[in-house]
Design goal:
Blueprint: H1 2-33, H2 38-43, H3 55-63, H4 66-97, H5 101-113, H6 118-131, H7 138-161, H8 166-174, H9 179-190, H10 192-208, H11 211-216, H12 225-230, H13 240-275
Length: 276
C-alpha cells in the first residue's frame, strides 16, 4: 500500500522537475550565449561555449552607456514604487474608514480601471502629458506609472485595511494621538506585508517595461535598460553577442531583489485574503 501511494508523489515530483527544467532553459540560453561570439551563437546556440568571450559584457556596457541607463531605470523604479505605495495606502485607508457613497463609487472606478487595456488609453495619455509639458522627461514617465499602478495597489490594500481592528485606532485617538499619527504609527506598520507585495509587483513591472518609456522618452540620455537593449535589434541585423550580455546585466539586479523578497508576496496576499 505504501509503495502504491508513493507512486503518484514520485510521478508528480518528476513532472515538476521537467517543468522546472523547461522554465530554466531560457536562462541557460541567455547566460551561455552571452559569452559567445556572434558566429558561434548563429552556428549553434545550444552548445557550450568553446571560447568564453567576456569582452561582450565590456562592449555592451560601453555601447549602451549602461551606467546612465541603469541610473535612469533605478530612479524611475524607486520613485514610481514609492509614490504608488504611498498614495495607494492613503487612498485605501480613507475609502475603508470613511465608507461614504462617494468613496464606494471611487473604489468601483479604481477597480474598473484595472481591466482597461493600456493600448486603448495610450494615445490620450501621451496627449495629456504633452499638454502638461512633461513629455520626454523622467518626472512625466513617473507620473504615468503612478496613474497606471494605483488601481491595482488600491484594490490590494483596500481589503487588507479591513483586517486592521478599528479599536486600535480609536484607542490611540482617545489617548490624544492625531489622525495622521495613527495612520503612520499604527496603520502603516500593520500594512507592511501588503505594501511589500505592492512594491515588489510594481518594481518588476516598471523595471522591465519597454512600451511606456519608449513612448514618453525620446532623448538618448533618458533611455532605460529595456530601451537601451532594443537598440541592438535593427531591421536587418540583430547583435545577439551584445544584446544578450545587456539582458543579463539588466535582469540581475531585479532578479536578486525579487528572490530576496519573494516570500512577502505569498505572505501579503495570503494575509489579505484570510483577514480581509
Amino acid at each position: 500500500m505504501k509503495s502504491s501511494s508513493a507512486f503518484p508523489r514520485v510521478m508528480l515530483q518528476i513532472v515538476m522537475i521537467v517543468i522546472a527544467i523547461l522554465f530554466m532553459a531560457p536562462f541557460y540560453f541567455l547566460l551561455v550565449n552571452s559569452v559567445k561570439s556572434l558566429g558561434d551563437i548563429l552556428t549553434n546556440a545550444a552548445s557550450w561555449p568553446e571560447t568564453w568571450v567576456w569582452s561582450n559584457y565590456a562592449n555592451a556596457w560601453r555601447i549602451t552607456r549602461f551606467t546612465e541607463a541603469f541610473g535612469n531605470s533605478l530612479v524611475i523604479t524607486i520613485a514610481g514604487i514609492l509614490l504608488i505605495a504611498l498614495f495607494s495606502a492613503m487612498a485605501a485607508y480613507r475609502m475603508v474608514r470613511s465608507n461614504t457613497l462617494l468613496n464606494r463609487i471611487q473604489f468601483t472606478l479604481f477597480v474598473a480601471a484595472m481591466v482597461v487595456p493600456f493600448q486603448s488609453i495610450m494615445i490620450p495619455l501621451l496627449q495629456v502629458i504633452k499638454g502638461l509639458g512633461i513629455n520626454n522627461s523622467i518626472p512625466g514617465l513617473i507620473l504615468c506609472y503612478l496613474g497606471l499602478g494605483v488601481p491595482l495597489a488600491i484594490f490590494l490594500l483596500h481589503g487588507f485595511v479591513k483586517s486592521i481592528p478599528l479599536e486600535m485606532e480609536e484607542a490611540a485617538l482617545v489617548d490624544g494621538a492625531k489622525p495622521y499619527v495613527v495612520f503612520w504609527r499604527i496603520v502603516i506598520p500593520l500594512l507592511q506585508p501588503m505594501l511589500v507585495t505592492v512594491i515588489i509587483l510594481n518594481c518588476l513591472w516598471i523595471w522591465n517595461d519597454y512600451l511606456l518609456p519608449s513612448l514618453v522618452l525620446q532623448s538618448q540620455h533618458l533611455r532605460t535598460i529595456p530601451i537601451a537593449t532594443f537598440a541592438f535589434f535593427g531591421q536587418y541585423t540583430k547583435q545577439w553577442d551584445l544584446a544578450l550580455p545587456t539582458l543579463v546585466l539588466g535582469i540581475t539586479p531585479i532578479l536578486l531583489f525579487f528572490l530576496s523578497l519573494q516570500k512577502y508576496i505569498v505572505e501579503g496576499i495570503t494575509s489579505g485574503s484570510v483577514k480581509g
